[in-house]
Specification:
Largest sheet: 7 strands, parallel
Number of domains: 2
CATH superfamily of the largest domain: NAD(P)-binding Rossmann-like Domain
CATH topology of the largest domain: Rossmann fold
Helix content: 25-40%
Distance between the termini: 72 Å
Structural class: alpha/beta
Radius of gyration: 24 Å
Number of helices: 14
Number of strands: 19
Shape: globular
Strand order of the largest sheet: 3-2-1-4-5-6-11
């Protein structure tokens, strides 16, 4: 057998990674650094990268991929540009958004003399383009637009990516764990070829080693061809759950199916619909030509069962590096801050509560950083669940995203229907709302020490719910919520204080601490 045709031209390459705040991009950066490349990232929200362990090793360009100036700055002096942007979360017009970005990216790469573009697309079913789902069609057309420039393009096409935090893994996980019986569309028996995220990263990080005259599509898939039902059954076997009873029917439309997926899993309906439409189309590799240029991983491609085992181990150990939900969501505000001066004078609504806490700032911080997900919010769980369900019913993300890590937050992390906007250990945690609202909203939890004339400094806890209403609907929403504030935020203040004071000698170990909803019930009694 002929040896893979590789090249040794990778030393000192400058690589641009787009989508660095997303699922694949955030994991690719350290892989490229390990390969010895100089890495630059383009980020619309660079503040979301502040807590990444590799941030001091890369160059960060702040900008928007839809802005030509940002693209030219990011692509200048670049050898290899990774196109890892996806617009499923941008709303119903994601197809046109994706094509517009790809067109601008191709032109900017040509203007800056970029030698190679590496693009991660989707396996294309063997059917006419007019019959493709909008998701598949968009992914294929993006590749076509990137090839219109001067750079050679390595386009990797893959089906479902399985790994801790991936949308595909989360869909399988939540459906299997929550539904003992499923009435599903017929697509549950369509063939697909999932691939482990570690294998995707293996090929992406080694794309610069492919000879410079190669410009083509490569199909990537794991060693197992299965169906979505097979993936659900496989997850049940690995995780110890009972296999759910699956009843396929042909009457469920993609719209109804996406609403069902949106209610049962962390994937919002706006993203679920194009994914569901694609599930009805077979996604299986027809070639494995990549082996001519990049040898298979030393231990071989990862089986579906092994990829599940690895993903579950990371979830259970709170070691999820990135998640699909790390990307921006439609309608999520990003630029304004609650401290903006033009909001003074009454236009910013504030529910502020404060108390002294008989515990160190470190202990109090550990309680605060444990908010959300399975830990709850130290206030009536039923109210949070109702609010999350209402958000899902109007197309929002609800509470199903949970936390990336049960023990630690970082800037940019999704947290149920919040996102971590600012995190200063032992001082400040600010969450920005990403629920559907007639305005902008934050939850700000801060700690400071106050000097005492009778002893050591005291720990002072301040809790603020802030809202910038948008017109009359915003004002009405704030007034309608006022009666619930005492029950929600008042009990949160009290229970956080009591939780911190119940462990005054050492920081809490949340791996053994009871969930917040149980704590609240105990305190209530």
């Amino acid at each position: 057998m002929a040896q893979p045709n590789t090249a040794s031209q990778t030393d000192g390459m400058r690589c641009l990674v787009t989508g660095a705040t997303g699922y694949i991009g955030g994991r690719l950066v350290p892989e490229l650094l390990e390969q010895g490349h100089d890495v630059r990232v383009l980020a619309r929200h660079p503040e979301r990268l502040a807590d990444r362990p590799w941030i001091d090793k890369v160059e960060v360009v702040s900008g928007d991929a839809q802005d030509v100036g940002s693209l030219n700055e990011a692509l200048a002096d670049t050898d290899v540009a990774y196109y890892l942007m996806h617009s499923l979360l941008s709303g119903q017009d994601f197809h046109n958004v994706e094509l517009n970005i790809a067109r601008k990216f191709s032109r900017a790469a040509k203007a800056q003399g970029v030698k190679r573009i590496v693009y991660l697309g989707a396996l294309q079913p063997d059917i006419p383009e007019r019959k493709l789902s909008e998701h598949f069609r968009s992914r294929g057309q993006v590749g076509d637009l990137l090839r219109q420039g001067d750079a050679n393009v390595i386009e990797f096409r893959a089906a479902m990516v399985i790994g801790s935090g991936s949308a595909s893994f989360e869909m399988v996980r939540y459906l299997t764990e929550r539904l003992p019986v499923m009435v599903t569309p017929a697509w549950v028996r369509t063939r697909t070829q999932p691939i482990a995220v570690r294998d995707i990263l293996y090929y992406l990080s080694r794309a610069p080693m492919i000879p410079g005259d190669v410009s083509r599509v490569f199909e990537l898939g794991g060693p197992d061809v299965t169906t979505y039902q097979g993936m659900i059954d496989g997850y049940a076997d690995v995780s110890g759950f009972k296999r759910p009873k699956i009843i396929p029917v042909r009457v469920l439309s993609p719209g109804l199916s996406s609403l069902w997926v949106g209610l049962m899993t962390p994937v919002p309906p706006s993203m679920a619909r194009p994914l569901v439409e694609s599930l009805s189309m077979e996604a299986v590799c027809h070639e494995h030509d990549i082996a001519e240029y990049i040898p298979d991983p030393p231990d071989g491609l990862t089986t579906y069962q092994r990829s599940l085992e690895l993903a579950l181990a990371r979830v259970r150990n709170s070691d999820v590096q990135t998640a699909w939900s790390s990307s921006s969501l439609p309608g999520a505000p990003s630029d304004p801050l609650p401290s903006d001066p033009d909001w003074t004078g009454g236009s910013l609504k504030v529910d502020e509560r404060e108390t002294f806490v008989d515990a160190t700032p470190e202990v109090l911080w550990n309680v605060i950083e444990g908010l959300g997900g399975e830990n709850g919010y130290y206030s009536p769980t039923v109210l949070w669940k109702v609010r999350g369900l209402l958000d899902q019913l109007v197309g929002g993300v609800g509470l199903v995203r949970g936390r990336r890590d049960n023990n630690k937050l970082r800037i940019g992390d999704p947290l149920d229907f919040w996102r971590v906007e600012e995190r200063i250990p032992n001082q400040l945690l600010r969450l920005r709302a990403e629920m559907r609202l007639p305005g902008l909203a934050w939850l700000e939890l801060s700690i400071r020490q106050v000097e005492s004339t009778t002893g050591p400094p005291k720990t002072f806890y301040v809790q603020k719910a802030l809202f910038k209403p948008r017109g009359v609907p915003g004002e009405a929403y704030w007034r309608a919520m006022i009666p619930f504030h005492g029950l929600i935020f008042g009990s949160m203040l009290k229970n956080i204080r009591e939780r911190a004071e119940s462990h005054p000698d050492e920081p809490l170990d949340r791996s053994v601490a009871p969930p917040a909803r149980k704590v609240w019930r105990t305190l209530k009694r």
